[in-house]
Amino acid sequence: MKFVLVTTGATVTFRPLIKLSLSLEFVNHLIDLNFTKLIIQFGNSSNSKDFYLKELETLHNSLSKDFGKNEFHYKEEFSSNDESKITILYNLPIKIGNFIVEGISFDKDLSLNYSSKSSLIISHGGTGSILDSLRLNKKLIVLNNQELADSHQLDIINEFEKKELLIYCKDNYNNKELIKCINKALSNNNGLKQLIPPRGKIIQDIILDCI
């Protein structure tokens, strides 16, 4: 199954990224690119699930106009530690058949269970999330959560971009910009380099330069 993973962080809800990822234009573009699944890690904050479901229902209503699916249903499952997993399945009459949107609040084994199996990762700018994706040699697009007080996050993103390890999507509110970044990441001449071990000193230098 060819899928995109979107990570928004464990605690603070990155609303613009969730909103972009659940827009009709974005989902239609993934379908056009033959993706069959979109997984969004939406965060553990008190209102993150409500916001995710609100945007998911908006997407559903938009899809219903085109595909005639009227009722909004989702299946919610809970792991042993009460991490929420919300899944909605769209049976779309298109060439690839079914398209799945899956939401998870958080998974402590996100890298193993999701990142390692994805074809493309779209991430918030947390250093840990960036490094986890790069160590798996995944195509990575990063957006900076401008609502965070961490002033070093953007500096770190820029340094990784300068080293051609990721694609930085600079506009958190523009579908066309994100779609452009996706097309670049998936192209054969995306210019991205792999983080080949051992690279510890390079990572340390990037972080130290931003402090």
TrEMBL record:
One of its GO terms (biological process) is dolichol-linked oligosaccharide biosynthetic process. InterPro entries: Alg13-like (IPR039042), Glyco_trans_28_C (IPR007235). It comes from the Eukaryota. It is found in: Endoplasmic reticulum. One of its GO terms (molecular function) is N-acetylglucosaminyldiphosphodolichol N-acetylglucosaminyltransferase activity. GO terms for cellular component: endoplasmic reticulum. Belongs to the glycosyltransferase 28 family. Involved in protein N-glycosylation. Essential for the second step of the dolichol-linked oligosaccharide pathway. This is UDP-N-acetylglucosamine transferase subunit ALG13. It comes from Pachysolen tannophilus NRRL Y-2460.
